[in-house]
Design brief:
The structure holds two protein chains of two kinds.
Chain A (H helix, E strand, L loop, with lengths): L1 H22 L15 H12 L4 H9 L1 H22 L10 H4 L6 H23 L8 H19 L1 H7 L2 H8 L1 H15 L14 H34 L13
Helix pairs in contact in A: 2-3, 3-4, 4-10, 4-11, 6-7, 7-8, 7-11, 10-11
Chain B lengths: L2 H6 L1 H19 L3 H22 L22 H32 L4 H5 L6
Helix pairs in contact in B: 2-3, 3-4
The chains are: A mainly alpha, B mainly alpha.
């Protein structure tokens, strides 16, 4: 019954949406409405106005800087909510399946992961630092850092991971993105410009350009590392296998 | 209905299909984790739709380089918006999954009907 009603409703919604697709302008046409107002201006003047030749980064950090600051606050709030619901990982008590399982991760897996994780983190740092000139940026690099630490935890277990990245070194890094953003924003106010303005008035052109590059770099590094550490902390908080009391090998 | 336009806008059609699939999963499946998966599928359909809007046929990435005209670059605004959207989607998924862990600890079940204590919602 529920399924029948739902399928009927979905059929109605689907017909309406497909009809709307038929009325949309042809995809990929360079004269479409979305490319006639703001986008050409960003593409033509983005590099000199925002200081990043990757226009997506220019839009993210400069034209829509408030939006990105809110986004950074959103992932920080998500971490706060997860920790409020689940609590931090219980170091010393927690055991993942990997620690008590009779089938250990094989030597091949462990060795591959041990060689791969530094390379992945190196690649993530490249993605973070090159976000202004090539496709990439803070969030992408942060996701790669988080993924590499998750890979390490899957192969070596939670105790080994929390020994490598202990809680007391993660706590200051988690809020680093919000702090870097606010610091860059209030630096603009201190120099007499608006909030999140990277160009300081009253400086020579060269100095203003240098300060803008440094501020954008600080924000990108903050987003990247804080994002990666936040993903790691969320994953550590979610590991719950100690509850099932898996016995160590008793046979 | 303009069928040739629909056949040309295939990305939009697939995003409609993904949207309906996600909505069906959220509404019909009783398992809470499957509901979260449906939510993620719906979010993905919106991302596909918006990025497809900004596409330019045989265009370039929106990175200013020598010899690439701005007219042939794809629209950077949907890409920046979707980057925001992906991060928000990850955050909501994390909070929803942590609530699922607590619910499973309390009720020993992730089935919405078992948690509510009845067979049908209506």
């Amino acid at each position: 019954m529920r399924k029948a009603i739902m399928l009927l409703a979905l059929a109605g919604i689907g017909v309406m949406l497909i009809y709307a697709v038929g009325e949309m302008p042809p995809m990929g046409d360079s004269g479409n409405p979305d490319k006639t107002h703001v986008a050409p201006r960003y593409l033509e003047h983005g590099e000199e106005e925002a200081g990043a030749s990757n226009v997506v980064t220019a839009v993210r950090l400069n034209y829509r800087g408030y939006d990105t600051m809110g986004e950074v606050a959103v992932i920080f709030c998500a971490l706060c909510a997860v920790v409020a619901v689940l609590g931090r990982e219980k170091t010393g008590l927690s055991r993942t399946h990997m620690d008590v399982s009779r089938v250990k991760a094989s030597v091949v897996v462990r060795t591959t992961v041990r060689f791969l994780v530094p390379v992945i983190i190196f690649f993530a740092i490249y993605i973070i630092l090159h976000g202004e000139e090539t496709p990439g940026g803070g969030f992408q690099g942060g996701a790669i850092i988080g993924a590499s630490i998750i890979l390490f935890t899957l192969a070596f277990g939670l105790p080994e991971s929390t020994r490598k990245i202990p809680l007391k070194s993660r706590v200051p890094l988690e809020s680093f993105a919000v702090i870097a953003f606010l610091a860059a924003g209030f630096t603009g106010i201190l120099f007499g410009a608006n909030f999140l303005t990277y160009i300081m008035p009253g400086l020579s052109e060269h100095a203003a350009e240098t300060i803008r590059q440094v501020m954008m770099m600080v924000i990108e590094i903050g987003i990247g590392f804080a994002g990666g550490i936040i993903f790691t902390s969320i994953m550590f908080a979610m590991i719950r296998e100690d509850k099932y009391e898996l016995q160590p090998d008793s046979s | 209905m303009n069928f040739s336009r629909i056949a040309h806008n295939l990305n939009y059609v697939f995003s409609v299909v993904l949207f309906l699939l996600g909505l069906y999963t959220i509404a019909v499946k009783p398992n809470l984790v499957k509901k979260i998966m449906g939510l993620n599928i719906m979010e993905t359909s919106v991302f596909l739709f918006m990025v497809s809007i900004g596409m330019v046929g045989s265009g370039n990435a929106p990175v200013v380089t020598e010899g690439v005209k701005p007219a042939t670059m794809v629209n950077p605004i949907p890409q920046a918006l979707i980057l925001t959207g992906i991060v928000v989607a990850v955050s909501t998924t994390a909070v929803a999954l942590s609530l699922c862990i607590r619910i499973h600890e309390h009720y020993d079940s992730l089935n919405a009907f078992e948690i509510l204590g009845r067979d049908e919602l209506f």
